[in-house]
Amino acid sequence: MNAILSHNRFGLTEPVYRSDTEAYGTKPSVRLRGFTRRFGDNAIIDGLDLDLAPGELVSLLGRSGSGKTTLLRTLAGLDGTSGQDVSIPAARAVVFQDARLLPWKRVWENVALGLKGKDIRKRAEQALREVGLGHRLDAWPLTLSGGEAQRTALARALVRDPQLLLMDEPFAALDALTRLRVHELVLKLWRIHKPTVMLVTHDVDEAIALSDRILVLDKGRIVAEERIDTPRGERLALTVALREKLLGCLGTGHISEDDDLTVVFDDKPNIPFSPSDPF
Domain ABC transporter spans what residues (predicted)? Predict the structure, then answer.
């Protein structure tokens, strides 16, 4: 297994040669070994090793083009994995950035979409009550707020009792206050249902607030890992220092007042400015 870079609590870096699940003797919920995905000669995912422990909440950070979407599609079963060493639970669900609700079906029908067996409406109703939408069962999707729509999408995922819950920037379109409330709801439901969660996000603070572990993907490889042992309610002091580390891994360094930068506008000349300018 390839070594990855891990940042410890003292700001030092150290190689990790085995996954958390291997270290603690727990059979992983998700296991990839040497996984590669190519498009022509371009390796989008390059020899990736990945373990996700049962019930673990992991965030995946990465710049555009780093391979995040390709990895998520693989874990969701949307791309083939023939001939590769990949183990993924059959019971999985995805929550996308867009709630993707069918406007011609009522809220409970969207949650129940694809369910089989008895008491389908009852199961959908229970899932909606868990996300605080028991009073919106028969509403039409177009009458929902953005937060309500995402909570409906979350209910639709959890009603299937997934072992693996994949979340593709599900909070990006929400306003700041709604996002914080949905964060709290997700953590509450995660503790109740105990799925393994992979959250893809560009928001470093969000990853710090929610995760057991944060992975940084670059050029199809995991280049950094941060395990967070601090209880979620006590992470405020940790956030600033850890944010700087993770932004550094993402190629976004600190900008000093002495740095000269250039902003490029379409069809306009380059305009040099200093970080101290009132922009």
Answer: 30-244
Quickly list H helices, the chain.
Answer: 20-24, 68-75, 107-112, 120-130, 146-158, 176-193, 204-210, 236-249
Domain count, the chain: 1
Please indicate, yes or no, whether the overall pTM of this predicted structure exceeds 0.85: no
Characterize the bridge pairing of strands 57-62 and 196-200. parallel
SS3 for 233? helix
Indicate whether 34 belongs to any domain.
yes
What residues contact residue 160 under an 8 Å CB cut-off, 6+ apart?
91, 93, 115
Residue 279 belongs to a domain: no
Per-residue pLDDT of the chain (279 residues; tens, 9 = 90+): 434 444 333 343 333 333 444 444 468 899 999 988 888 888 888 888 999 999 999 999 998 888 898 899 989 988 777 778 889 999 999 999 999 999 999 999 999 999 988 899 999 999 999 999 999 999 999 999 999 999 999 999 999 999 999 999 999 989 988 998 999 999 999 999 999 999 999 999 999 999 999 999 998 899 999 999 878 877 776 776 787 788 888 876 554 444 444 434 344 444 444 444 443
Which strands, in side-by-side order, build the sheet including 164-168?
Answer: 13-16, 4-7, 221-227, 213-218, 57-62, 196-200, 164-168, 92-95
- For residue 278, tell me if it sits in a domain: no
Which range of residues forms the domain containing residue 196?
A: 4-273
CATH number of the domain where residue 126 is located: 3.40.50.300
Domain assignment present for 269: yes
